[in-house]
Amino acid sequence: MANPSFWTQANALLRKNLTFQKRNVKTNVQLVLFPVILCLLVFALQCVIDTQFDKPEFKCGCVCRNNRTRCADSEKVCGIQYSDLLQAALCAIPKPPQWPPLLQLPEPSNRAVRTASLPFSDFPDASCRITDSCPLTMLFTAENHSLAQTVTASMFGSALSMSDYYDRDIYATSAMNVLGSDSAPGQNNFIEPAFSTGLPIYYLQRNCSDAEKFGLSLPIADNEVELKCAQALNLWRNSSSEINSELYKGYYGGNTEGQVNEIVSAFDFLNSNENRYNVSIWYNSTYGRHTNVLLRIPRSINLISNSYLQFLLGPGTKVLFEFVKEMPKPESNFRLDLSSLLGTLFFTWVVLQLFPVVLTSLVYEKQQKLRIMMKMHGLGDGPYWMISYGYFLAISVTYMLCFVIFGSLLGLKIFTINDYSTQFVFYFIYINLQIALAFLVSSIFSNVKTATVTAYIGVFGTGLLGGFLFQFFVQNTSFPRGWIIVMELYPGFALYRGLYEFAQFSFEGSISGTGGMKWQNLSESTNGMKEVLIIMLAEWIVILFAAFYIDQILSSGSRKSPLFFLKGFQKKTPFPNLDTQMQVSKVFSQMEKRDVIQEKEKVEELLREPTINHAIVCDDLKKVYPGRDGNPDKFAVRGLFLSVPQGECFGMLGPNGAGKTSFINMMIGLTKPTSGAAFVQGLDIRTHMEGIYTTMGVCPQHDLLWESLTGREHLLFYGRLKNLKGSVLAQAVEESLKSLNLFHGGVADKQARKYSGGMKRRLSVAISLIGDPRVVYMDEPSSGLDPASRKSLWNVVKHAKQNRAIILTTHSMEEAEALCDRLGIFVNGSLQCVGNPKELKARYGGTYVFTMTTSSDHEKDVENMVHRLTPNANKIYHLSGTQKFELPKEDVRIGDVFQAVDAAKRNFTVSAWGLVDTTLEDVFIKVARDANAFDTLS
Question: Which of 92, 99, 187, 236 could form an S-S bond across to 192 if both were Cys, CB 3.0 to 4.6 Å?
């Protein structure tokens, strides 16, 4: 039969994977339910929050004045309520309120005073902080000193009387004077926090009278706001560098005393003169560092500009700055998008959930040695990687599509606002990276439970570290961007960063109505999505290549050198202990029997004149395991010469540790021979193992099966690997099931996990024979079978060996005698004898075994009777009146034994007796004992 093509193998594996997937519907449903449940949880929380924000207190309406609960409609105030900051963001404001312009002032306890770090004599003494009477300090410098002094002298007007605010328009009055507040600024001017927080408003002037220090009241926004006088102190400095130093030392942490000495503002007139106005203004920007607030800067600009105009045109000249106000806005509903706030962490877990699924599937095949089994039945690395990768990719794409579609149907903004093509590219690249990473990591683990626990710790650990550490670094603008990129080299953090960017765009887009992330947004300097996509794409390629490379080195089957791709340029190096090995081979050559020598000569002849009739030829095959920790080298196989023709079943017998498994492992490609060669169908096992796999069948010592696949599905898969198709495949599967009693009673369509040990064993034998392989290795095929099943299996093997070569290992002498055309007894790594069972019994069993049971009183009589038959008799067993003797065949005749027994019966009671020829078991024991004795002597 022709060797299966690449696509035939790929088709077989794909069909098996689809069947396996069908068997795991429950697991698939659970997998899909995880993101569904998280999306539903976010959706439910979103509904609860939306319901809360739909209550009247969060909407524009009409309320009673002064926080009363009941009042007439005529007394209600409708629209924006000045006491409620939230309504400023929700209500329609066609005519925004006007507010007096203010200076941003430091709190009384933070105003600049004389300290060790600011020892200037023109600063006020620190005792003023006790009475909250410290002046508000402003610094000045200029190239033209006199001009600066003249200009700054007119910045603050004369004292203000209470009647000015009641008798005149408040905005016109505030335009003529300087007001300030130490309250924190707001994010808009629909409501000015200075008039709603209960803090006083300060009136700045050169000196405050005692009456003004007690404060006045300011009627604004339906409230009486306390108005206090505050002294403005203008101080001259020689240069802008001096100003910078004082500003820094007055800032938080800028001095060693732990005090805050804030200066209101500073002005550098630079090269200003009568014909040139050029001023730099210092102001405190820290209020808007972390939030987008409106800094109270315009009043400072107007203040210094008016002073310069008065310097030029006289004291009556002013540019009036009456009020500030916001732009009109429509009514809006407040919606807090939880998918954007919580989605980064939750959805990181959702996407990473796929990693343990892929990893455990790969490690399961490794742990159960299913990958090895598939490879030994002809599955190449190319079809395996293509189908396995494509299989996991299809599952991942389906999973992510369900995730995104379901989230979109629920209306989660992180999906609906951001551009779907951007999301598709991001998720597609990441799931490919994740699959490649799972292939790479699977080479580390050999146990499914360990891999599963480790993977899930990684999943939840990545989410938590991303949410509580990595995100902090991303938001901290002072943290080096280079280190952010280094952290994103870890795929989990790259995923988190991408989801974070989606969440940021969806959150801002849902509030502003500008929409989410689109392709053009990737060019923005603050958007990290572009670098994430580049990193993930590069890592995908690198990790996929590394995973394939490591798989080839640690491949199921014989391991390759790390430089296997340079094999053609490497020189072969001898095994380090080759001299010792040759000496040992010479020692053992001295004890080689005639049949072993004949087998060696036969192999040499076959190598000179190759023939296709001999399926297996081993030429001086050796396997030596190097010693470790001071232990000597272990010689597992010592110069094996063996030929097995087509149509022969060769049985390998030997005690445990004799080297049978090492020999089988070399022949099926699990380990490489130390030296020597072996040819299967003319192909060298050292260089053409891939070709040998296509014509080989293996029944391993332990059943390697998928527990969720049925017996029929196993045979269909392995049959397709052997290039069986259509009706030929169906017929071969049915015949295999019937021949091994796996067809009737629905056994063929039961999952392997429901099989008994004997049924699994029979299925393993059926797998090894499906597809008519030319060479079959069976390692103890009948272990664990009942007598009826064993008999049935023997019939199958007898029928199968007619057109193929079979190497069979067993500890059952009955099985060896029934199935094997020839036997080889293997002891201490060497073939001790070769021949058919009759030849071996004749050659090594030249005795009869005589057994007699009598009372203890007549044991001596029995012994005397045996020695009269032959003085060369050897007692081999003696227990409670039962004795066994070996009688050389050349010394006795069977008739003489019967006559002696009849005579003995007349003299004493004989309970039982028997005479048997040498069994194969006796031969085995004798050969093993002799070989061990020689090994001990040598």
Answer: 99
pLDDT, tens digit, for every residue of 226-257? 888 888 999 999 899 988 888 888 776 555 45
Look at residue 67 and give its three-state secondary structure.
helix
Question: Distance between CA 691 and CA 378 in Å, rounded?
Answer: 8
- Compute the radius of gyration of the chain from its Cα atoms: 48
CA atoms of 326 and 122, how far apart (whole Å): 40
Name which of 716, 758, 710 is nearest 733 in CA terms.
Answer: 716
Q: How far apart are CA 661 and CA 651, in angstroms?
A: 13
CA atoms within 13 A on the CB side of 581: 25
Beta bridge partners of 831: 826
Residue 67 — very low, low, confident or very high, per pLDDT cuts 50/70/90?
low
User: Which residues, at least 6 apart from 872, have a Cβ–Cβ distance to it below 8 Å?
Assistant: 888, 891
Is the CB of residue 598 less than 8 Å from the CB of residue 605?
no
Strand order through the sheet with 874-879:
874-879, 882-888, 847-854, 910-917
pLDDT digits (tens, 9 = 90+) for 22-35: 887 888 888 888 88
Q: Where are the alpha helices (DSSP H) in 591-667?
A: 594-608, 660-667
Q: How far apart are CA 575 and CA 675, in angstroms?
A: 8
Residue carrying the six token digits 């899930």:
456
Task: Give me the pLDDT at residue 167, please.
Answer: 46
What's the pTM?
A: 0.68
| Residue found by looking up tokens 């069986």 in the block | 724
Please report the sign of the dihedral spanned by the C-alpha atoms of residue 813, residue 817, residue 820, residue 824: positive
Residue 747 gets which letter from DSSP? G
Report residue 567 as tokens.
Answer: 């094999």
Q: Three-class SS of residue 229?
A: strand
More confident residue, 596 or 187: 596
Structure tokens at 438: 């799972």
Residues 6+ apart with CB under 8 A from 339: 42, 46, 407, 412, 413, 414, 415, 503, 506
The structure tokens 């600009």 sit at 301
Is 108 within 8 Å of 260 (Cβ atoms)? Answer: no
**pLDDT, tens only, 578-592:** 344 444 444 444 446
What is the rounded distance in angstroms from the CA atom of residue 194 to the CA atom of residue 185? 8
DSSP class of 571: P
Neighbours of 586 (CB within 10 A): 10
Please say whether the beta carbons of 20 and 12 come within 8 A.
no
Tell me how far apart the alpha carbons of residues 583 and 885 are, in angstroms, rounded to a whole number: 40
As its CATH architecture, domain 846-917 has 2-Layer Sandwich (3.30)
Task: Please state the domain extents for the chain.
Answer: 61-90, 103-313, 335-553, 846-917
